[in-house]
Amino acid sequence: MFSLYIRKTWQSILVCDMLDILDMQSKIMNMLCVLLLITTPLTYAKLKVGFYQKSCPQAESIIQKTVEQRFGVDTSITAALLRMHFHDCFIRGCDASILIDSTQSNQAEKEAGPNLTVREFELIDQIKANLEASCPLTVSCADIVTLATRDAVALAGGPQYNIPTGRRDGLVSRLNEVNLPGPSFTVGQARQSFSDRGLTLNDMVVLLGGHTVGVSHCSFFQDRLSNFQGTGSPDPSMDQNLVANLKSKCGSNTGVDPTTFLDQNTSFVVDNEYYNQILKKRGVLQIDQELALDKSSAKLVSNLASNNAFFAQSFAKAMVKLGNIQVLEGNFGEIRSSCRAFNTLA
């Protein structure tokens, strides 16, 4: 019964007054109520679809319109936003900590090696500016990243889905906390990394399907082309025609690090072709190829490859789950005025 009192301060006040009237001699109960009022923080609504319906009813349309304008200029923003969202949520949860700029006293997450190629921070800035003009200090940067990613997925031919909002922005962003699954991970290693964030093996296989619109720098798979695991030969699990093509594309100039599409067929479309590619041994990254080879994930890969509708449904569900990782709600965190800085430093 007392868990109900903890949820809302004003409810606690009313309950305490009623108890006082009904039992004036119950000193113990009165002391408990006072304690609850002192120790209970003020809380608000949890994540829900349409969180800003009253406070900023045009919020989602502003985000969608801004993303549409940017997509019209550069369709690769879908891959960029998927990567930004993933990298953000995997460190401290979905709290927009990846957006924070470093200062003299703090090296932020975006300075970490895996985040140096994360892009479209300017798009998030533009969305934030548009929202601040309509609804100052109302929409969090964490929700902006989540909604912008959803809208970009739909624009690229992927599923359209509702996602709950109400996230708050984090107050910490540290380079040394960045620990992301790497491109050379085994399925087992990647599975553990996802599990640490509350995501299942199925979630992992589906979310890696985001590589359907992604690219990779040659440095992340160069060893697979000529000296896989020190053998002096290419990775035998990679299609030899792809090996030859990537060798030509990547070249031998160590000062240059070109990129290539992870999905060699429908490179700008969010669909299930990624899974068909890895079934043909055309996975560019080691972790991608191993999804099709490992017994624990091979069946799901086949199912996703054979049914695009199943992929779309699964991807939407997994994206919602990703967006719920360790979110800040209620009066935790803040609503930043600038997505690049904490309010105390803005």
What does this structure look like?
By secondary structure, this protein is mostly helical. Helix content is 47%, strand content 2%. The chain has helices at 2-7, 9-22, 27-39, 59-73, 77-89, 121-134, 141-155, 187-195, 201-207, 222-226, 240-250, 273-279, 286-293, 295-306, 308-322, and strands spanning 215-217, 259-261. A two-stranded antiparallel ribbon has the order 1-2. Helix 9 packs across helix 14 (295-306). The protein starts with a helix and ends in a 24-residue tail after the last helix. It is an enzyme of class 1 (oxidoreductase). Disulfide bonds join 56-135, 89-94, 141-339, 218-250. Its cofactor is Ca(2+); heme b.
Mean pLDDT figure:
89
Rounded to an integer in angstroms, the radius of gyration calculated over CA atoms is 24 Å
Low-confidence stretches: 1-45
Q: Based on the structure, what is the oligomeric state of the protein chains?
A: single chain
- Please work out how many helical segments DSSP would assign: 15
**Apparent shape:** globular
Amount of helix: 40-55%
Biggest sheet descriptor: 2 strands, antiparallel
End-to-end span in angstroms? Answer: 42 Å
Write down how many β-strands occur, each being a DSSP E stretch of 2 or more residues. 2
SSE class: mainly alpha
Return the string of H and E elements: HHHHHHHHHEHHEHHHH
Reading side by side through the largest sheet, how are the strands ordered?
1-2
* Beta-strand residue fraction: under 5%
